Request: fold
Amino acid sequence: MNAGILLMAAGLSRRYRAASGGQHKLFGRLPSGDTVFEQSLRHAQQSGLSVRVILRPEDTGLQALAAQAGAAFHCVASGGLGESIAAGVAATAGWPGWLVALADMPQLTPETYLQVNAALAHARCARAVYGEQAGHPVGFRAEMLSALCALTGDEGARALLNSSPSARVVVDDPGCVWDIDLPSQLPRPAQ
Reply:
């Protein structure tokens, strides 16, 4: 099974922008000097799986970073995460499956992508779990195409995961449950 990765970057980053004076969270700087987006994209690409970034048409800075990294992207004027996932799945309908990940999770490891991908060989849906906390990516086989393309709203694919038998992929990766919503959540350089 070689699902592709949909890296979701079409959010508006409202809370982060309000707390940072207008900066989009995906441009927040990490101790490495990379932006949140750059590191999230690099980790997805390091999995060796196909990657498609889903972003907004007006986010030309993110489009430029994706192009610089050699990543394909698809623009969607989204009304929410569900709609963005639906557009990404429709744009990659020939893939054998999808791993949906959020671009504000820069610590998510390439190994976690591969573990969830491997679980799709035996399950229609799969999701990374760290401790007892469900995380990302979440994975879906191609047979879920119609259901994924019908998603709307801001729930993402949660209802599909809850209504379908899903494999729980226990990983040793706290990055699969850690995301950035506020500037205070950015890691600080070691002192």
